[in-house]
Every structure is written in structure tokens, then in C-alpha cells.
Amino acid sequence: MRATHTNADMSHENKLYYKTSIFLKSLRDNGLFSTLRKIGQRIFYKTKGVDFSTQNIYDLTRKGEHQEHGTALVSTSTDFLQQLLGDLEKLIDKPLNKRLFVDFGSGKGAAIIHARELGFQRTIGVEFAKELHERAIQNIKALGLSHVDSIYEDATNYKLPNDISLIYFFNPFDEVVMQKVMSNIMQQKSNFENDVYIIYGNASCSVLKEHCQLLDETVYTSGAKAEFYKL
Ligand SMILES: C[S@@+](CC[C@H](N)C(=O)[O-])C[C@H]1O[C@@H](n2cnc3c(N)ncnc32)[C@H](O)[C@@H]1O
Asked: Which of 39, 131, 165, 218 places its Cα 20 to 30 Å from the Cα of 194?
């Protein structure tokens, strides 16, 4: 099995040496002000009891038949999501429709929480690891947010609401699951009320390229990648 999926050990991301290297890189790439702002946000989350830390999933309670096809939990940061949304907006050359944001493989709820804070009217996350879903619920509650929901489900069993406007994948699973998710989405497409865009962060398979219109792909200085699509 490839190291990107369920058996990947991501626990090094919580170690002090890793955090220090990220801090130094942020200082170099983004400057002191932006780095201090990020640290301030982390301290704020800590005081609220919010936890978005990286976590392996192979020892968690996973729902459904695709237990061996998912990736470890790595949470999206506010800055990264903001960058992605801004880049998509520039690509389509109009303001984003911020009606409904859905994150397939939503972990501890970081992306759905940030998306709500960045102006989406409603956000929904679908997560198959029970412990991560429960942590997402706690995080949402700790921040007192409304219209942010975490659903405990395998992504292949989730039916998108018709008012969907943005779909987010942050390298959640391999092509086996992605193929099923995309085929469900294509079957529902005619019911959708809005133009729907997709952001695929750190893409690890090419399934979306078969189904959707690729608008652009970007590699960021951090090493993160993103693909932008119109459904
Ligand atoms: C890389 S993390 C992304 C977390 C979140 N999207 C974020 O950006 O903060 C991938 C997540 O997908 C979840 N996942 C993997 N396979 C899944 C499946 N079949 N259905 C639902 N969630 C899945 C994992 O448990 C993990 O939490």
C-alpha cells in the first residue's frame, strides 16, 4: 500500500522539531507579522480547547467498506484555505458563491470551520473516522459556530444538497473512493442550483480530470499543491 493512504504515519507533524522547522519556514516565507498572527490564532484555539492536530487513522473506528483507502488526518490551515479561495476567485474572475461548502473527509473540522469564518453561509464535513468526527463536533461547539455540521459517514454514501456551491477535497482518499464519490456527484449534477467549483488540495489521483473542467493547478512555496475545477 502506498504511504499516502491509511497506513501513513503522520505523527512526526506534532513533534517539536517539526513545529520549529515550520515556524522558521513561515518566518522566512511570510515574515514576522504573519507568523505572529498564526501563533496568536493557535494560542486562541488552544485556550478555547480546539484541536486540529495531525493524527494517524489506522487505529481509529472507521465507518463503511473503504477503511484502507483513506489518508491520515492533516488539517487545512486558515491561511491556506484563504489562499485557495482567493486563487479560485481570481481564476473565475467573479466573487465566489458562498452558499454551501462541503468537505469530503473533513477530519477534526478545520476546513469547514475556516470556510464558515471566511464567509460561507453553511458548511458541511463528511468524515468516516468516529473519533475525528466527534472532535470536529467539539471544535465547532467550542467556537460557538452555527451552520457548520460534521456528518459521520463514508464519503461514498453522502448525497450533496442541491444548493452546493463549493466542494473541497484535501487529499482525503485514493482513486477507488474518489471514483465512487465523483460518479455519485455526476449523477446528481443536474439537480444542483448553482455553478459548482471544486478545489482538490494535494491531489493524489487524476479522477477529477476525467469528470470536470480543470481550470488550473498550482504549486505553492510551502510545497502544497492545488487543482481547481468547474463541475
Ligand atoms: C488529509 S485529511 C483532511 C482533513 C480536512 N479535510 C481538512 O482539510 O482539515 C483526510 C481525512 O479524510 C478522512 N477520510 C478518508 N477516507 C474517507 C472516507 N472514505 N469517507 C470519509 N472520510 C474519509 C480521513 O479520516 C481524514 O480525516
From this structure: 218
